[in-house]
Design a protein that fits this description.
Low-confidence stretches: 1-10, 267-290, 294-299
Number of helices: 13
Shape: globular
Strand order of the largest sheet: 1-2
Mean pLDDT: 84
Largest sheet: 2 strands, antiparallel
Helix content: 55-70%
Length: 299
């Protein structure tokens, strides 16, 4: 680490992250492995889902945990494990047959960047927030399109909606085409923002966690939408899975408010720490009035 470089660029804040970045740069050959992104994404997804599997298991023996469930009751532990194992196997096969080859090819053709200096903490936070906002906008457009174009829904998005009642693993239980499209949106967001590699890595980690939390099926008091009301959280996204329309943005609420697709959900979970039902107030004359997504759609 060359401290004079920080003083020259006026980047003394970057001293906090520079040791970490120097260690990562020393592992450059490992980090540019063509198989690392897919393997890392799959393992991180499983790791971040693990606390919610523990919640599912504990709920079989400690009924108080079930008070935080959004829209389903507790089930026997064996049935719970069968659901998780089945979902995990489907995701693994899609990663093995589609995501791994595609990301390996991308790693081969991309030019890796390893700048000498780490970003400042303020730059890191700013770039991550910018990536999240841009990804949220791109996802809203893509998600809305998949629900409005019949062949897109059937061939790309319908697989994800086989889970009407979601749990953490289902965040990536989608068709291979949808998994690749979401990878492209995330990579494009980081590219447009012009992220430092460290900022991009943090964005991908946070993106994975937010998707898991959206699908976890629990309205927990420490969830991010409880701390930051601009996020929709699990109740927001569970409403989308329950009635197949509206709430198209993945994380934030503002795009659905602006385009009239916000479902106006009032959850018992919001007032009674996780009720089992969701009351819906449908907005008239909204973009969600001509849904073509499913036969049992409740639009």
């Amino acid at each position: 680490m060359n401290i004079s470089n920080f003083l020259k660029h006026g980047n003394t804040d970057g001293l906090l992250l520079q040791p970490l970045w120097d260690d990562l740069r020393a592992q450059r050959e490992f980090l540019t492995s063509p198989f690392l992104p897919a393997c890392f994404a799959f393992l991180i997804h499983l790791l971040l889902c693990a606390p919610f599997l523990a919640f599912e298991a504990l709920g079989c023996f400690w009924p108080r945990i079930n008070l935080y469930r959004i829209s389903r009751t507790a089930e026997p532990l064996l049935l719970c494990l069968q659901r998780w194992v089945g979902c995990c196997w489907r995701i693994f096969m899609k990663y093995l047959t589609t995501v791994l080859p595609a990301t390996a090819l991308y790693q081969r053709v991309r030019i890796p960047r390893f700048p000498e200096l780490a970003p400042s903490c303020s730059l890191l936070i700013g770039e991550v927030i910018a990536c999240l906002l841009l990804f949220d906008a791109l996802f809203f457009i893509w998600h809305y399109s998949m629900h409005r174009v019949p062949w897109l829904y059937r061939r790309v998005h319908q697989t994800h909606h086989q889970n009407r009642i979601t749990f953490a693993l289902t965040a990536q239980d989608a068709s291979p085409a949808e998994l690749l499209s979401l990878q492209m949106l995330a990579l494009s967001s980081a590219w447009v923002v012009g992220c430092h590699p460290l900022s991009e890595a943090l964005f991908h980690l946070l993106n994975t966690w937010l998707a898991i939390e959206d699908h976890c099926g629990y309205d927990l008091p420490w969830a991010i939408h409880r701390l930051l009301p601009c996020f929709g959280g699990a109740p927001f996204h569970q409403a989308h899975h329950h009635i197949y329309r509206g709430n198209y943005a993945p994380y934030f609420r503002h795009w659905d408010w602006l385009f009239g697709t916000y479902l106006g959900v009032r959850e018992e979970a919001g007032s009674k720490h996780g009720g089992r039902t969701m009351r819906r107030r449908r907005r008239k004359k909204s973009l969600g009035s001509d849904c073509v997504c499913a036969q049992d759609c409740m639009c």
